[in-house]
Amino acid sequence: MAQILTFLGKGGVGRTTIAIAAARRFANRGKRVLLAIQEAGPAPGLILGIVPGAEPQELIPNLKVVQLQATVLLERSWEEVKKLEAQYLRTPFFKEVFGQELGVLPGMDSALVLNAIREYDASGQYDVIVFDGVGDQATLRMLGMPEIASWYFRRFRKVFADSDLGKALSPFIQPISSAVLNVSWTEDIFNQPMAQQANNQLEQGKQAIADPNRVAAYLITTEDAGAIATAKYLWGAAQQVGLTVGGVIVNRATGDGAESEEFEPLPISRIPIQSINDWQPLIDALPDFDQASQAPRPIAVNVAERKVSLFLPGFDKKQVKLTQYGPEITVEAGDQRHNISLPSELSGKPVTGAKFQDSFLIISF
Amino acid sequence: MAQILTFLGKGGVGRTTIAIAAARRFANRGKRVLLAIQEAGPAPGLILGIVPGAEPQELIPNLKVVQLQATVLLERSWEEVKKLEAQYLRTPFFKEVFGQELGVLPGMDSALVLNAIREYDASGQYDVIVFDGVGDQATLRMLGMPEIASWYFRRFRKVFADSDLGKALSPFIQPISSAVLNVSWTEDIFNQPMAQQANNQLEQGKQAIADPNRVAAYLITTEDAGAIATAKYLWGAAQQVGLTVGGVIVNRATGDGAESEEFEPLPISRIPIQSINDWQPLIDALPDFDQASQAPRPIAVNVAERKVSLFLPGFDKKQVKLTQYGPEITVEAGDQRHNISLPSELSGKPVTGAKFQDSFLIISF
User: Fold this and answer.
1) Which of A87, A277, A300, B94 has the fewest Cβ atoms within 10 angstroms?
2) Cross-chain residue pair B106–A104, CB shorter than 8 Å
3) Hey, which residues 265-284 in chain B have their CB within 8 Å of chain A?
4) Which residues form the domain of A16?
C-alpha cells in the first residue's frame, strides 16, 4: 500500500510544478514514486521535459511518471467488464462491443482514474503515489465517490427491498436469473457476487481516503486573493468527502505571509519564485508531507457524549445545512452532500442540537 | 433559443473575467443575457462584486448571473424523476428517497449543468447565455455528452436486440411490464416513452452543439507557453465533440503577437493588462462573437466525392487514430473518441484511404 498525495488549488497556481517537485523529493530520498498526471493536454509535458505516456516511464531513478488517459483506461476496463460478463452471464452480449469504439462520458474520467490509482496502489510497486489531478471540486468528487456510491447502494437496496416494486418484481427474478445467469441468484439483487465485489472495493476506497496516512491533500495557493479564497473553500469542501488536508503551500511568495492566518491551524510553507529547471530550491522549500495525521480530521464521533464533530473550516453557519430526511443525517456545504454513516449507538437517533463553533459543526443526539 | 458562448483555456488565464466582460458587452448592446457560472467556490464572486446564487439575479440591466450548484440542481432533477416515475410506474419507489439526501457523484455535475443550460435556453428569457464552465476537457466532455450518449443508446440498443440475452429476456418483459408499469410496453425496452423523450433531448442537444450560430467556444490564453499549448490542444479536442471554436483571445498581452500563427486561421484578439474594476477597455478589446460561423467546422461530409473531412488542428498524424471496429468509424484524438455517424450513402462502407493534410483528416470511402 502506497502513501497517496494530491494537491488542491485554483488553476494557474502551479499545482503540477509542485507535484513534480514533491515526487522528485520522495524519489531522492529513496522512495519508489509514481507521479500520476490526469491532464490530457501538453502543459505537464512542458514542465516535465518529457511527454508522459499511458504507461509509467522512468523520469529519474525511483520516479516513474504516467499520464492517465481516459480513452486508454476505458478500453482496458471494458476488457474487464467482458471477463466478468463471460463469467456470470449465460449469453454474453457486451462482447459484441469493442473498447476501441467507446466514447468518454462525463464521470467516466473520474471513475477510471480512481480505479487506475487503486490498481497502482495495489500493485505494491510504489511507496508513494503523487496524484496531479484537476485539483478542484472534480478531484473532491472523485475521492468522495467510494463513500457516496456506497451510500446510494445502501439506500436504494433498502428502499427496493421494502418497496411494492421489489415485491412486484420478485416472482420474476428467479426465472430470469436462471435463464440469463451462470450462477444462482438470491432474491436480493444487491447481494450477488458482482455487486459484493464492487461494494468491497468501495469500502476499501472509503477506508483509504479516511486515513490521512494513506491519502492526504495539500492546498496550493499564491498570494492572489482569488487563489487564497479558492484554497480555503477547497479546504472546507475536502472535509465533506472525508479527505484530510495536511497543510498549505504558498507558491511564488513575496509578501509578509499575512495569508497564514486564513489557514489556522495548518502548517504553511512558502515557496519563493524560482527559476525554471532548478528543482532543488523548490524541493527544499516543500513541507514535510508526513504531517497530515496531525491536521484536524474531517469527522470525530464521541459515542459516550453522543456527539459528532465535523471540521468545516471556511464556512459560516449560513453556508452549512443539516438535515435528517432519510435514515442518516446529511450535511450540505461546499456544493457537496455528506451522508454521515453513524455507529450503531447513534444510528437512527434524532438530532437534539447542533452548533457551529471554531470551524466545527457539533451535532448532539 | 439563445446564442450560447463558452470559453476554453488553461486555469488562471482569466476565463471568468473575460466571460463577465463578454456578458456585459452583450447586455450593453441590449441583449438579454444570462451569465451561468459553474465554479462553486468564492473566486467568481470576488471578480463579480456580488455573491452569485442558485437563482438568476440582476447584475446590471439586461444581465443576470447564476451559479449552477450541483446539489441544488440535483434536488430539482430528483423531483422530475419522481414525477416521471409516478406517471409510468404502477408502484413508485423513488418517492421514498429525498432529493435533500442525494450526494453528487462524478459526472452528475456535467449532466445537471448541461440540463440547466438547456432549460434556460428553452425558457425564451435570454438572447445570449455566457457559460463560464471549467473550461477544459471537462467542459468538452459535457458538451460532447449528447452525441456520445446517443451513440451508446443506438449501439447497445442494436446489440441487445440482436443478442441471445435479449432473446432470453424477451419472454419476461411483457409479464414484468404489466406488473410494474402503468403503460403498455413493447418488447423493445429502448422504445418506450421515457427512453424516447431522453433520446429526443439528446438529438436536440447534438444539433445545437453542431450549429456555430447556437453554440460556440472561444480560446483564452496568455503569452505563457503552457497556456498557449493548452489552448491549442483544447482547440483540437473541441472538434472531437463537434464544437466550433470561433477565435482566440490573448489575455494580458504585452508581446509582439508571435503566438498568432499557432492558431491560423482563427481571428485573434489581444487584451492588454487592465486595471481591476475598469471593464470598458476590456469590453472594447473583445472580438465580435458572431464570427464563429466563419471558423472551420469540425466535420464536413462530401457524399458525391465519398469523403469526410475532420478538422483536427494541433494534432499530428501520430496523435490521431482511425478505427472501424463497430458499425461506425471512430476517430481517437485528444483523449476523446468520436464515433462518426455517416449519412446513409456512406454508412457501413469500408474506409479506402485516409490522409492528414493542413490540419484536416480526410477519410475516403
Assistant:
1) A277
2) no
3) none
4) 3-72+101-148+205-294
